[in-house]
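#structure-requests
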Amino acid sequence: MRQILSLTLTMAMLTGLASATPDTAILTTQIVAMPQGANIELRLKNKEKLRGAKGAVSNTGFALLGAHAVERQIAFDDVVSVKSFNPKSHTTRNVLIIVGIGVVATVGIIAAVALRCAPLGCNSKL
């Protein structure tokens, strides 16, 4: 009875592990279908997470272009998951910083003129 139960549990665990492993053919198709230069995020079998632009594709893998034009060859067999991502845009943040600097500079100029004008009276020539 123990042997049957042990064998049944072992088979259940092995089929669960097999179904948890993604199909390499499906991942290969997904990667090939993405346009060259697309921003992608990969998770590899060694738990590494990579981001970059998809480069040239070969029969066994593809190139991943990382920051500073560093090219890394990735084998299709090493990929666990792939998804596309959009890099964050900092345009709104940069515009708000510039507007903030402009407001502070304007307030500073108005304060300087007001302080210089106050002892003399605003009607007198500066």
